[in-house]
Design goal:
About 25% of the residues lie in helices and about 15% in strands. The protein is built from eight helices and nine strands. Strands 1-2-4-5-6-7-8-9 form an eight-stranded mixed barrel, surrounded by four helices. The longest helix is centred in the middle third of the chain and has 19 residues.
Length: about 300
């Protein structure tokens, strides 16, 4: 989901509604998190290496992963048995890219009892309407799913998009996409961001009405994000989780077990936690070409020499 880069070309011109009550205001060092399943035959997760200080990942009881095609074929029952409670799954990028493992991961996670949501990686050289048409064509409106995620980063190494990200323009485009996600899926979407993008575009108080998922693998969130209240914390990029070959991002939910159940809509609790709802997993329909429609407030991207945008 993230590549380590610098953003010298940023130009500055200058969280939840119903769910806010269930999130704490405001993961990795410490003991490795095993989760609510104490299965002796499952190897423990690899602890994160960090300089975390006052806030540690193991302070939070609910942990998850985010995955894409790069994790290959995932053994979702084993992932769930290791204590993983949720997964953010890459679905789309830009106006036409679809992650080749999305369907497999989407169905497999649900069948195993792992709460899952889909994320869209923004390509800054396509219009918000084109981006959302792609996402909505791929990701079903599943009432059991977590809210959709808008992944906002800038990757200057892209060879196909040269655009300076102006603060006002980026916020405008994000707002259009976030509103469309909420309209289509009926859930307030989550914003995923990196430190550099946050500092250049979102700091200090942009789009605070949305839950935010922050990346901070070297420091506790408050060191890089100040007093911004976060809902999810990506605290490790080289995690080892049973059922997933190679490294995987690990994340913590900012809240208690009860707050997680409220956020995820897991009122039924036990059935979903044990994977007993496997029979309810639905096959996704065949993909059709994205149907582009007008989205109120959408404006075509401003093309300018300078900062490059996302590469897969």
């Amino acid at each position: 989901m993230f590549a380590s880069i610098a953003y010298p070309g940023f130009m500055r011109s200058g969280c939840i509604a119903a769910a806010a009550c269930v999130l704490l205001a405001g993961c990795g060092g410490g003991a490795p998190f095993v989760g609510d399943d104490q299965t002796g035959g499952i190897p423990p997760m690899k602890p994160a290496k960090s300089a975390f200080t006052t806030t540690q990942p193991h302070q939070f009881p609910v942990h998850g992963v985010d995955v894409s095609k790069y994790q290959g074929d995932i053994d979702w029952p084993l992932v769930r048995a290791s204590g993983t409670r949720f997964a953010w799954i890459k679905a789309t990028e830009g106006a036409d890219h679809v992650d080749q493992k999305f369907r497999q991961n989407w169905e497999g996670a649900k069948a195993a009892g792992v709460a899952r949501g889909a994320y869209h990686f923004v390509f800054w050289c396509r219009s918000p309407a084109q981006e959302m048409a792609n996402f909505e064509n791929v990701v079903p409106a599943d009432p059991d799913a977590l809210p959709p995620v808008l992944d906002v980063e800038a990757t200057p190494e892209s060879k196909s998009c040269k655009r300076h990200l102006v603060r006002e323009e980026a916020i405008r485009d994000m707002r259009v996409m976030l509103r469309e996600m909420e309209r289509h899926y009926g859930k307030k979407p989550v914003i995923y961001t990196t430190v550099d993008f946050y500092e250049a575009i979102l700091h200090p108080g942009e789009l605070t009405e949305y839950p935010i998922w922050v990346r901070s693998t070297k420091h506790s969130p408050h060191v890089r994000y100040g007093d911004r209240q976060w809902s999810f914390w990506q605290y490790q990029s080289d995690g080892a989780v049973p059922g997933i070959r190679g490294n995987v991002d690990r994340n913590a939910f900012h809240g208690t077990q009860q707050q997680w159940l409220a956020f995820a809509g897991e009122a039924a609790g036990p059935a979903r936690e044990t994977g007993a709802y496997v029979a309810s997993a639905q096959m996704l329909p065949p993909l059709a070409p994205p149907a582009l429609r007008a989205i109120p407030g959408a404006v075509a991207p401003t093309m300018m020499p300078g900062l490059n945008a996302p590469a897969y």
